[in-house]
Amino acid sequence: MKLLTAALLLLFIAMCLASAEGVKCKCSRKGPKIRFSNVRKLEIKPRYPFCVEEMIIVTLWTKVRGEQQHCLNPKRQNTVRLLKWYRVWKEKGR
Question: Which residue intervals define the domain Chemokine interleukin-8-like in the entry (predicted)?
Answer without folding.
Answer: 24-86
